[in-house]
Specification:
homodimer; 8 helices; globular; five-stranded antiparallel β-sheet; Rossmann fold; Dna Ligase, domain 1; 447 residues; six-stranded mixed β-sheet; 19 strands; 30% helix; alpha+beta
Chain lengths: 447, 447
């Protein structure tokens, strides 16, 4: 597929970014620990998945600062499937088959429910790829629409494909499009705007369950689970958990417009910056600490800000406050998460552009990923902000097989390490799912 | 890995054989039916696996005559893992993880029990690859030996790897090597010579169960199951089942040395040849029918003969009879299977050598395969006979994803079709497993 994300073309010989050289040493240590302990890690994951089944699918954004490698966002309604390397389609197909067998063993077809009112071509390309992958896995697949469409809407995509969104009808406790009423509804809508009534109380299986939408999820809960899992894994492989986990703080309710909670926010930001500085001093890291402040519930990088000093969160002008007060679908921010910022020190050799890995998982399996190569922003800025231009650079290797005989920072081993950290975030999401949906052994989502 | 099977080198640009052109038409029809019906086929397989879990692993030898595409051998203790394309290791790793989770969810390590007294370097390469793949999947893996070794035996392999076979000790109801006593024993010994006492009544999980060894399996049972499954699938996709299934006949007990059962054999061979001729006439196929007579229990192509007339099975000289009377491990042939012969009309363009596809499955997943390119024998001869020289040509694509928009006989679609037929044979083996081991729902082998 031609690349439509930006005019910038990536040299096709360039298959992966490089870490800035002064941070190769610390990363090598993290990677060595992971590669050497891979059996223990895999055994531990197997045990974890038995206790806490994985969500249906997900993508995880990672940041690699060399001395620290951690997740910054875990999306349970992933887009961007069009950015994956087609060579790994078979891996995706097997994983879809496993995931569906766990969620809805007698499924024959899938109805995908996408985001509302989006004409974003990248998103539509992702939907088209998703539908193709489900078809390749042997499921008849249609894409519905939550919009009040009178008739199917056709979109001609940059890839040359045509995507059709069908109007959805609810008949009793079932959804159907055009007489097609499959037993499985695949939700690709993160419900940032609240739950959708039409999805309530269906007799069809909805995967992932609507309770995993942002109307219920909390980033604080996610990263709290992540913290405790990172501690558990780090202990297993004898590594300081700080190398894998961004620190977090919570500040209760904030109303940016009314300037309520500002003092608390300022204090916590100061506290976090001091904690990071302490760790940096200990490890002789010369960077300037920064924090990320984001909506506790939401996506798309709206309502996200960076700060390198406590003053920055109090000196906000009206425009900045308005931006923080609004999240996707116009939800007001009530709770914010204060998170340790992780620098992205991976850069493409040719252009020096910052590259951020994004990993994709279906069920418990890592199925691929790509680098989000950012053509404009800097190392500490949020690469997922609105209008951000990026070029996807698909991983050329899977994240599944380590290469024990190769250098710990060979591409293959680095991607395996990314897969470990991404699965750690997935496991945190699995615990959220358990908390929100109930005990999986009573209501099995996976075997 | 360098190729050590033969001095013949395959042109590295040559990725797949071609079918002789006069049989492309009929194959195109078979392939079109399969590709067009892929959703129905996948749905049907899913339903079948739920009812009858797949064996732990297998390889299936196929023959492609253009007008007919069928399995000729289904091995439930496969070797040849070293012939697979490394690009698909991630697929193998995921499949191993699924298979082990089904068979022994809390497994941390694997002990592989290989064939006895084999110094065959190809087999040892396969074992080394198997162990590597289990390690990549995160399991500590050792290779045991049923031989009375005093100490570990080390083998330097042509690939440069060193393989170690460890002496096995039985402690109570557990096997161990060198203090390593994993919960899972992976059997890679087809037990042609009978069951092994040391494997009886273990508290460890043995996969596949010893009951799937040739001391219990019957080819007649396998191909009977295959026949009925091929009928079921063919009906589903509106195809004459003959295109997918070799006809079989049984002849009760035969003793070649004592010439007992010879008359029956002659009659059945005549009957089978007439049935094939009738079908050939109907479909205007100009080939000469042939039958394959093989031991009902056994492997390795010993005790296999071809016949194009009934007289050929009565005019056997002493040497031929001795050969038919002996199978692997010296077992006498008691029962023989009379099977419709399927020509191999796939040839490598450069050399004209006959190529026979071999597909590998782990659990219910096709994970890859290769062409056995035969450098000496003809189209109707058995490519798996002792001393047969072949060059493995790994599949360059997976057998997992059809390409609905490409020609039905594109490489990708052909391999998908091979995957369908191979899974049909796997399903026949699953039914054997159910018959031999019991109801999987009482004793779950898969979820």
């Amino acid at each position: 597929m031609p690349n439509h994300h930006s005019a910038l073309q990536i040299d096709s010989n360039e298959t992966s970014p490089e870490l800035e050289s002064h941070y190769c040493g610390p990363l090598l240590r993290i990677e060595s620990h992971i590669i050497e302990s891979r059996r223990r890690i895999e055994t531990w994951f197997r045990e974890q998945w038995r206790r806490t089944p994985a969500p249906f699918y997900s993508s995880v954004d990672l940041r690699n600062a060399g001395y620290k490698l951690g997740p910054v966002d875990t999306n349970l309604f992933p887009a961007g499937f069009n950015n994956l390397n087609h060579s790994f389609d078979p891996l995706v197909v097997h994983a879809i088959q496993s995931a569906v067998e766990h969620a809805c063993p007698d499924a024959r077809g899938m109805l995908i429910i996408p985001e509302r009112h989006t004409r974003n071509q990248f998103y539509l390309e992702s939907l088209a790829t998703m539908a193709e992958l489900f078809e390749l896995a042997g499921f008849e697949t249609r894409i519905g629409s939550l919009e009040p469409l009178g008739e199917p809407a056709h979109f001609k995509l940059p890839s040359g494909r045509t995507l059709t969104q069908h109007p959805i009808h609810r008949e009793g406790r079932r959804l159907e499009v055009d007489g097609f009423s499959p037993c499985t509804i695949v939700l690709n809508n993160d419900l940032s705007g609240g739950r959708e009534e039409i999805l309530d109380d269906l007799e069809q299986t909805v995967v992932p369950p609507t309770a995993l939408g942002w109307w219920r999820r909390s980033k604080f809960d996610h990263f709290s689970h992540y913290q405790s899992l990172a501690h558990e894994l780090a202990e297993l492989i004898d590594l300081d958990p700080w190398h894998l986990a961004p620190m977090i703080l919570d500040c209760g309710q904030i109303d940016f417009m009314k300037r309520e909670g500002e003092t608390c926010l300022q204090e916590k930001v100061g506290e976090m910056l001091a904690a990071i500085q302490k760790k940096y001093d200990e490890l002789e890291i010369k960077e300037k600490p920064f924090v990320v402040i984001k909506a506790d519930a939401g996506t798309y990088g709206m309502g996200v800000m960076m700060a390198q000093s406590p003053e920055e969160v109090t000196g906000l002008n009206r425009k900045q406050r308005t931006r923080m007060a609004a999240s996707k679908d116009g939800r007001n921010i009530n709770r914010v998460l204060i998170q340790e910022g992780i620098y992205s020190f991976e850069r493409l050799g040719s252009s020096g552009h910052v590259a951020e890995p994004v990993l994709y998982m279906i069920d418990r399996h890592v199925v691929g990923g790509f680098y989000r190569v950012h053509t404009k922003k800097g190392q500490s800025e949020n690469l997922n902000s609105p209008g951000a231009e990026f070029v996807p650079l698909p991983f050329t290797q899977s994240c599944v097989t380590p290469a024990p005989d190769a250098s710990p920072d060979s591409d293959q081993n680095r991607l395996y390490c990314y897969g470990v950290v991404a699965r750690l975030a997935l496991l945190a999401a699995a615990r959220e799912q358990r908390d929100l949906v109930g005990d999986p052994s009573e209501n099995p989502v996976a075997d």
